[in-house]
Design brief:
The complex is a heterodimer. Chain A contains seven helices and no strands. By secondary structure, chain A is an all-alpha fold. Chain A has one domain. Chain B is of the alpha+beta class. Chain B has two domains: 84 residues; 156 residues, Beta Barrel (Thrombin, subunit H). Chain B is rod-shaped and about 155 Å long. The chains are: A mainly alpha, B alpha+beta.
Chain lengths: 166, 278
């Protein structure tokens, strides 16, 4: 039941992404709050609802963004997949796992966005995308990943209490 | 009169006489010395008293001063908040006044003002979200402007909000005209937010500072809306067209209020475009 917190939390994340984070630019890139939030949620050991959260997040983002929805669905579900795969292997170093997922997830989603929009006819310069968008966004995502991971860890403890888990 | 009364009377007369003589100046130096001693004593006592009084009353004053100071600081912070609020109101009023001036100068158009409430979550796309939608008669394809120039075009609409594609978006292409050269071109957005002008004929001379306006061709935008000014021109002999970079008239990073032209209906000319022959 406590998983229903996903609705207000992801809604707030999308609103913050649209209203605040998209204004905090480094060159032309900015942080991807839903990506960091979903990645850090999927990395929590007790969490079993990461896929549901990702689909909900994609639905909310698709409502706001002009990005084609297959790009969002494939991109964010891939982030959950990578996070869960890493969580089982790098469970002793959660921050390292968080950085790795953020790094891989950002690159993958940007590559997918680039490919998807190019296929749909939007002209892009690959050099501009890497230099002006992807690398600055990557830096900002890594910066924001630490505090958001801590918040999501506490949230996971609240949503999945130890008694219920055991 | 008994002897005791007589003694009292004599003492009074003597003391009174001495006082009268002293007041009359008959005891000059003696009275001065006496009075100076008295003054010194009084000064000493007074200064000690004041010191003690300060010592006793000072803490009470500090407390009251601190209270007063806290009150004043609270008042100052309230006033500062009011000043900031008033400054915001002033700047918003100035922006609105400029928009009203712009709207009244283009009386043929009908405008609907809207606030910018967000941007596209993806850095690949240059879209804004405004707080007016179909309930305010906003429709897809309507041009969006400010008093400075062209902003973009409504891309998607819901009841109380709409998404606007900016002319800086990589997928945006606006048919334009160079005012001085009187030739048409196409203004293209880019992923970095810069606008370039392409498809400029090699026959015309384009100079830095030339104004770029919408041409109205294609039916996507009304004509004669400012897009920006030419900054640099690239003209190579072996290329079919010249290119130029444009400084946009609108500051897209500070968009807060925009005007939607609600009486303009964009024309979809795609059925008229020739199909590619396989």
């Amino acid at each position: 039941m406590r998983n229903l917190v996903a609705f207000p939390l992801l809604g707030l994340a999308v609103i913050l992404q649209s209203a605040v984070f998209s204004q905090i630019k480094l060159l032309s890139g900015y942080a991807d709050l839903p990506l960091i939030l979903l990645a850090s949620w999927a990395l929590q050991e007790r969490v079993k609802s990461a896929w549901h959260w990702a689909i909900l997040g994609c639905a909310m983002l698709a409502f706001v963004s002009s990005m084609p929805w297959p790009v969002l669905i494939i991109g964010y579900l891939a982030v959950i997949f990578v996070a869960q795969a890493l969580q089982k292997r790098v469970w002793q170093a959660p921050l390292l796992a968080m950085f790795s997922v953020t790094f891989i997830g950002t690159l993958f989603i940007h590559l997918l966005s680039f490919a998807g929009l190019t296929v749909l006819g939007t002209p892009f310069s690959f050099g501009d995308v890497i230099g002006s968008i992807t690398l600055p966004s990557l830096l900002l995502n890594l910066l924001f990943s630490i505090p958001i991971y801590a918040i999501m860890r506490d949230l996971a403890r609240w949503v999945y209490p130890i008694e219920e888990f055991e | 009169m008994n002897s005791r009364s007589l003694q009292t009377t004599i003492i009074f007369l003597v003391v009174g006489g001495i006082l009268a003589l002293a007041l009359g100046g008959f005891f000059g130096s003696a009275s001065r010395q006496f009075s100076s001693v008295l003054i010194e004593v009084q000064t000493w006592i007074s200064s000690r008293f004041l010191g003690i009084q300060d010592f006793v009353t000072a803490p009470r004053d500090i407390v009251s001063l601190r209270t007063r100071n806290a009150q004043l600081e609270t008042q100052v912070s309230q006033l500062q908040a009011q000043v900031i609020e008033l400054q915001q109101l002033t700047s918003e009023t100035e922006r609105l006044a400029a928009l009203v001036d712009f709207a009244s100068s283009k009386a043929e158009n009908t405008y609907k003002a809207a606030s910018v409430i967000g941007r596209d979550p993806s850095p690949f796309l240059h879209y804004i979200i405004i707080n007016r939608g179909s309930n305010a008669n906003i429709r897809r394809g309507m041009p969006v402007v400010t008093n400075q120039g062209l902003v973009g075009r409504v891309d998607a609409v819901i009841a109380d909000a709409a998404r606007v594609q900016l002319i800086t978006d990589p997928a945006s292409a606006v048919n334009a005209v160079l005012q001085n050269a009187d030739t048409s071109a196409t203004a293209l957005g880019s992923v970095t937010g810069d606008i370039s002008l392409d498809l400029i004929s090699q026959d015309v001379t384009v100079e830095s500072g030339d104004l770029v306006l919408t041409s109205g061709l294609g039916g996507g935008y009304p004509s004669d809306i400012m897009i920006g000014q030419v900054v640099t021109v690239r003209s190579l002999e072996f290329e079919l067209f010249q290119q130029a970079t444009i400084q946009p008239a609108v500051d897209f990073s500070r968009l807060s209020i925009v005007l939607v032209i609600t009486n303009f209906r964009s024309v979809d000319i795609s059925p008229l475009e020739p199909l590619a022959i396989p």
